[in-house]
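PROTEIN DESIGN WORKSHEET
SECTION A - STRUCTURE
LENGTH: 302
TOKENS:
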């Protein structure tokens, strides 16, 4: 045997000796006491630290699942509490107006609640989730981030198609973007669905928003020299969305501004007959003086 073969043989013998002296020790199996301790500590922290309570109860579940029937009661009690804790954590974020975090958290809550078959928490989370999208959209609307607002209102409507508040706010965002036709489509939906539910207040709110949107669009068209568009917008406001006041006098005051703009639009097209009719209906409130001037000195109506 040469030197190289001798070294190889010695190394082999050392390896055999090393393995013969090595004993594999199994880790300690989980115990019921560990599962119970995690469960009890989680219950104590439910109100003060729900996020930590979730961690402990999920630890109790992990241990209890390995105990078979010996951990069934702990498993049942833990999984019953966990979905509600997830909901509380999500609701806390919502209360702080951390809407992006709340939305993500409520989605996780739904996932957990479905896993543990808690229909009550699934329903509650779904109901709150679409309101979170609405709240987030409302924030964007205030910041004049109209595209972001519309995207969030669409998410709310995907979850709750009958949510008229989201429809209305989407209409406002579209109106502010200058998409008048799309805005009117949203206001029409609100009027239709609110009327069907006998929600007169919301229907009236949407009708007024549509009227004002058309009034503003008509005024802008007049300033831009687009009298035909102005006539179209303002007549649509009067024919489809005409508003009324407390009495006839109040109604006349509310409509005077629109009729004044309509008179200007008709006169720009040299339509004296309609211009005179419109200006005569503008003889109320703050528009009375200007309308009288137009009637007497500009259009020269009889």
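SECTION B - SEQUENCE
RESIDUE ASSIGNMENT:
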């Amino acid at each position: 045997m040469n030197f190289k073969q001798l070294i190889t043989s010695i190394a082999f013998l050392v390896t055999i000796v090393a393995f013969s002296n090595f004993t594999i020790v199994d880790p300690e199996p989980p115990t019921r006491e560990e599962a119970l301790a995690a469960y009890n500590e989680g219950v104590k922290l439910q109100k003060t630290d729900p996020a930590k309570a979730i961690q402990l109860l999920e630890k109790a579940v992990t241990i209890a699942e390995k105990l078979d029937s010996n951990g069934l009661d702990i498993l049942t009690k833990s999984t019953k509490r966990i979905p509600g804790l997830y909901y509380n954590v999500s609701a806390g974020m919502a209360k702080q107006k951390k809407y992006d975090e709340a939305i993500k958290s409520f989605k996780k809550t739904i996932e957990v609640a479905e896993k543990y078959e808690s229909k009550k928490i699934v329903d509650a989370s779904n109901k709150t989730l679409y309101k979170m999208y609405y709240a987030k959209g409302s924030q964007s609307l205030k910041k004049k981030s109209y595209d972001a607002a519309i995207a969030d209102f669409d998410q709310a409507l995907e979850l709750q198609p009958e949510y008229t508040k989201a429809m209305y706010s989407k209409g406002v965002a579209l109106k502010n973007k200058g998409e008048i036709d799309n805005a009117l489509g949203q206001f029409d939906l609100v009027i239709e669905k609110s009327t069907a539910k006998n929600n007169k207040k919301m229907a009236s709110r949407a009708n007024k928003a549509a009227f004002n949107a058309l009034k503003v669009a008509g005024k802008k068209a007049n300033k831009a020299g687009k009298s035909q568009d102005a006539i179209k917008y303002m007549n649509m406001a009067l024919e489809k969305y005409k508003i009324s006041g407390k009495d006839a006098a109040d109604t006349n005051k509310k409509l005077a501004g629109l009729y004044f703009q309509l008179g200007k639009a008709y006169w720009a097209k040299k339509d004296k007959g309609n211009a005179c009719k419109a200006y005569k209906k503008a003889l109320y409130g703050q528009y009375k003086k200007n309308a009288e001037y137009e009637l007497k000195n500009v259009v020269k109506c009889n």
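SECTION C - NOTES
Residues 80 and 169 are 38 Å apart (CA to CA).
The radius of gyration is 36 Å.
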